[in-house]
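I am writing to request your help with a piece of structural work I have in hand. Here, with my thanks, is the record as I have it:
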Amino acid sequence: MAKIDVTKVWALNYRLVSSVLGEVAPALGELGLEVKELFLLAELDTTPHPAALAEALLIPKPTVSLYVKRLEAAGLVKREIDCSDLRRYKLSLTPDGRKTMARGLTLLTGAFGARLGRLTATQQAEFKALLEKLARTTTPEK
């Protein structure tokens, strides 16, 4: 079996992600969101603390702070002192934030779903399993 060109695989992956995000960016802009802000909103329910959010999204902490300020000013995010640790803030979606996030995720799902629709159901399941395997940060013991 011929050795795969990893650079070409990376380029294909980048082109896929870039094309989907580029397709939805104008519509997200109409919702008042940048692409990364949509991912931030989508992560808030499971990762409500800014530092952990930065780590989960692989975004620098100052960038997360900037996004949070913008989203808070737009009425999409609420920031409160975390009662369990008064030194930290806890973020949550406002009702408008939840609606905006849902609309944004619908746009993203539609664009990516159209591309996934080019694959059979079996191929989609295999693709998902492969992505999960590649996304793991540690290699399982053999």
Observations:
- The helical segments are 6-30, 35-43, 50-57, 61-73, 95-116, 121-135.
- The radius of gyration is 18 Å.
- DSSP finds six helices and two strands in the chain.
- The chain has a mean pLDDT of 92.
